[in-house]
Design brief:
It comes from Hibiscus sabdariffa (roselle). The protein is α+β, with helices and mostly antiparallel strands and 170 residues long. It is 34% helix and 23% strand. It has 6 helices and 10 strands. The strands form 3 sheets. It has a 5-stranded mixed sheet with strand order 1-8-5-9-10, sandwiched between helices. A 3-stranded antiparallel sheet has the order 2-3-4. A two-stranded antiparallel ribbon has the order 6-7. The longest helix is centred in the middle third of the chain and has 11 residues. It is globular, with a radius of gyration of 19 Å. The protein binds glutathione and FE2/S2 (inorganic) cluster (FES).
């Protein structure tokens, strides 16, 4: 079964990272699409509707690179793709998922169409210009043509053999 890392997972990942916990002179920092937002301290004379809301991305914010690093470390098979495993939005991503679904392994995915900054961060991390991008046991493997080739020549089976099968759905 494919495990989709949604923006909720990003928010969870961010909230557990030390940088996200640092205190700042802001009220209630919160996170959306991996960006840190905060409201400025309130002026008691200012009506709520007119209170400014600042979008803050300061040096204390967790980077998208941190999230990618954590993804590939924690997920034995990680795919960054266009769309989601059950509904790929590109033929290349669809092919990669079809190949990986031949194996009884947990598949974790992130839809890079949801977030342009995540998309750039993944490209920068792997030094690879296209999607899908597949990581196995923390190592960048390649895109759909490479994974298909590895499937056909038996290399993929070898690489995945010590990854335990998908957990049964609850
Ligand atoms: N050889 C690659 C081709 C993949 C490819 O060309 N992807 C394009 C179109 S989906 C891409 O990601 N372009 C860059 C982008 O959209 O940022 C593969 O098999 O994965
Ligand atoms: S989105 Fe057009 S080829 Fe992938």
């Amino acid at each position: 079964m494919a495990r989709l890392l949604s923006s909720n997972a990003v928010l969870k990942a961010i909230s557990t990272l030390p940088a996200a916990r640092s205190s700042r002179n802001v009220i209630g920092p919160f996170y959306q699409n991996g960006l840190k937002y905060s409201t400025v301290p309130s002026d008691p004379d200012t009506h709520d509707d007119f209170r400014p809301t600042n979008k803050v991305q300061d040096s204390a914010s967790v980077s998208f690179k941190d999230i990618v690093e954590q993804d590939v470390k924690e997920n034995p098979v990680m795919i960054y793709m266009k769309g989601v495993p059950d509904f790929p939005q590109c033929g290349f991503s669809s092919l990669a998922v079809r190949v990986l679904k031949h194996y009884n392994i947990p598949l974790s995915a992130r839809n890079i169409l949801e977030d342009p900054e995540m998309k750039s961060a993944v490209k920068a991390f792997s030094h690879w210009p296209t999607f899908p991008q597949i990581f196995i046991k923390g190592e960048f493997v390649g895109g759909s043509d490479i994974i298909l080739n590895m499937h056909q020549n038996g290399e993929l089976k070898e690489k995945l053999k010590d990854i335990s099968g998908s957990p049964k759905p609850e």
